[in-house]
Amino acid sequence: MTEPAAGLVVVDKPAGLTSHGVVARVRRLAGTRKVGHAGTLDPMATGVLVLGIGRATRLLGHLMLTEKGYAATIRLGVATTTDDAEGEVTTTADPGAVAAVDEAAVRSVLAGFVGEIDQVPTAVSAIKVDGKRAYQRVRDGEEVALSARRVTVHELVVGDVRRATADGVDVIDVDVTLRCSSGTYVRAIARDAGAALRLGGHLTALRRTAVGPYGLPEARTLEQLGESYAVLPLADAARAAFPARDLDPREAGAVRVGRALDVPLDGLTALFAPDGDFLALYEPRDGAARAVAVFC
Hints:
Pseudouridine synthase
């Protein structure tokens, strides 16, 4: 069987499907089991899910270090077990407390999440605790306490702030867009904003708009992929995601066997052969450019 072309597929994930479910469908389309994704999306969430095919799966761990973009709706006044709309309601705020919180207070609290913050991930995250996913431990009835992690919210823009009634409960719905580092949980921002306002909070909608340089304009639905399956070639994917350096034949030969180079690099860099073939990711370390991952 011919090995499928290595590269990336950018999917616009639908609601109600797990990231693993998307991987399973693309495996069938690609004709290989060597398919992985660059960062899980919850079943409720939609939007950009970057998949690697063949050798490109080795690129995914580096893509996960890039920033991501989201559009979300936060509901203030109700807290849930999962910090999103799929969980069970744990608390609802008193109508008087909801009425006492004005739009300026909501905007002020959310502005406080911009920058480097210490964030405790939601208990139903995919983080492993002693080799087992946190969400699985919660499903098995275990108490899960995760440690805070340092994450960065580069930008958080508050859009519409509106009062509503949901299932007979007075709430405040807030539309936000944000850019953040990988590992940031938007559900945790909703939870923590609700706690800061003493109302409780959770997400009712989440759409990932970008993973690094890959956004919704590049994303295709599963239906579109089924009609016309196509892969972004590995070399094009690397040039889009990382600073690039084109090598001469001597340098390319050294990189093909993973040798260090005496060339200046500003950070993690994609290196290319004279013919345009993507060879490796290198980084500056110990006074030289050294291999992080070799793809040739």
